[in-house]
């Protein structure tokens, strides 16, 4: 013998499922709207156009390391304390972001795109607040601005 289901209960369950799926789709769409770059040269040129990178900047970028080794596929210094990282996949980008977020060396402003990140290490390197406009960079390159670390 089959149980009769209440039509209102089914409608509510379908509505909740639809809302859940719509929420996921919205989050996915927002993630897909982030700009990506096909090469470090392309990323550097875009960041340079906005921030005016120092072509003769001295220093090496901080290499984000994960469980399997180096996370970034390419890196380039934009200025003494600002670096650009390009990632081979979403997992490497997410792991690198989490590494910066878990840092206890101080506040780290950064911008994250679909497969890249620009990180400002001014506070860590010299104890000074940065004058680099990463919020403006995020707005112009369709990235997400955040200040992470403690």
Write the layout of secondary structure elements.
Blueprint: H1 7-32, H2 40-51, E1 65-66, E2 69-70, E3 74-79, E4 82-86, H3 90-101, E5 108-112, E6 116-120, H4 122-126, H5 134-140, E7 144-148
Antiparallel strand pairs: 1-2, 3-4, 4-6, 5-6, 5-7
Could you please describe the fold and organization of this structure?
The protein is an alpha+beta fold and 150 residues long. It is built from five helices and seven strands; from the N terminus they run ααββββαββααβ. Residues 1-31 have low confidence and may be disordered. The relative contact order is 0.15. Helix content is 41%, strand content 20%. It starts with 6 loop residues before the first helix and ends with a strand. The chain has helices at 7-32, 40-51, 90-101, 122-126, 134-140, and strands at 65-66, 69-70, 74-79, 82-86, 108-112, 116-120, 144-148. The longest helix has 26 residues, at 7-32. It has a five-stranded antiparallel β-sheet, with helices on both faces.
Largest sheet: 5 strands, antiparallel
Helix fraction by DSSP (H/I, runs of at least 4): 40-55%
- Ranges where pLDDT stays below 50 over 5 or more residues in a row are 1-31
End-to-end gap:
61 Å
**Number of alpha- plus pi-helical segments:** 5
Strand segment count: 7
Strand order of the largest sheet: 3-4-6-5-7
Alpha carbon gyration radius: 20 Å
The structure class reads alpha+beta
SSE string, helix = H, strand = E? Answer: HHEEEEHEEHHE
What share of residues are in beta strands?
15-25%
